[in-house]
Amino acid sequence: MEFFNKAKSVRLRSHLGKYLVADDDEETVRQSSNGSSRKARWTVEFVEGNSHVIRLKSFHGKYLTASDEPFLLGMTGKKVVQTIPTTMKDNSIEWEPIKEGFEVKLRAKGGKFLRANGATPPWRNSITHDLPHRTATQSWVLWEVDVVDICVLDLESESLPSYMSPASSFSSSPADDFTVSDSRSPSIAPESRSSSIFPYRSRPSSGRQNGMELFDKAKAVRLQNHHGKYLVADDDEQTVRQSRNGSSHKARWTVEFIEGKPHVILLKSHHGLYLTATDKAFLLGMTGKKVLQTLPATKSDTSIEWEPIKEGAFHVKLRTSQGKFLRANGGTPPWRNSITHDVPHRTATQDWVLWGVDVVDISLSDSESLSSCTSTASNFSALADDFSGSPDTGSPIVVSAGRLGHASTRQVNRLTLPN
């Protein structure tokens, strides 16, 4: 529910990169790549006395409805349509958001989920509610929540940040679809690690690319993957892996920039070593290469450079100079919790290169107006480093009056900081 608590209206983006839209026939719902259309905008309504469900109303004033009519005879999927129910107690228009990493499942009555179908017609671009029984279709019920407008009425008693627009809109630009253009470990004495060996520039300015805006004001970040785990730097000062302990200093990565390269970042661990895409095979015969902590011999070593490429509203891919991506592996050991850089070739592993950016500290050097809405330490989440709430119910995290630092991290990252 935390994705919807302050939302006045949202867009829902499927695993196919398409948006849930309400057609002009005022009945059909389907997927479309055009996220700037008003058809993709859904007003969020809450149900009195039932705090764990929401209603979604199209721009026609009709509600997203889980019908009992089969999409195709003999198939399990049921139609999802726009309707105006005879009574607001009709639970076919109620959807229960269930948090799944950085995305949500929307559960309808009967326990089925809102599903974005792929494959050939008539399935292509269709929307049904169903249960995914095959591994290949598990991601078909996952949705990214793109908050378009927030509800100012719910925030009257709170100190709204000075950098929010008067319209309280997170995303008024029509350019909401993002295109993606389509990789040594010398040892240095530990005492030389105390400061950066690279020319550090204040912040990227105009002309930034894709996912750079998620890092522009970041002094330090945590990176959370689709498994709900964080990228951490081990104490052996070499290994990087995944861990559920996001509050550890091992999960904190300092963000640095390189003069003359506005499209890439460097990520430095608490050991003062840099996240590095090596040329060493993770396992012989496999395509994935090792990712380590290193201190390169020269500042021109591109193996420590990562290009953030925005994917959806809140995720980035981190691309190496070789065109591969930072990847959080699953499966059985030795893959489990490992980190490599690779290109995902299978549909089932596309999400393995997506990362949520959790800003831990911001830089105030070029944004004086932030002083009114952040703590002295410029820390967004000094106390609540780990996501709270049940993974099944997505218990809400409420912004307390004047304390933006206690908001859910995803809510913080939605705010666009001023240049």
UniProtKB/TrEMBL annotation:
Residues 162-174, 183-197 have a biased composition (Low complexity). Residues 162-209 are annotated as: Disordered. Residues 1-143, 212-355 form the DUF569 domain. Pfam families: DUF569. Transmembrane segments: none annotated. This is DUF569 domain-containing protein.
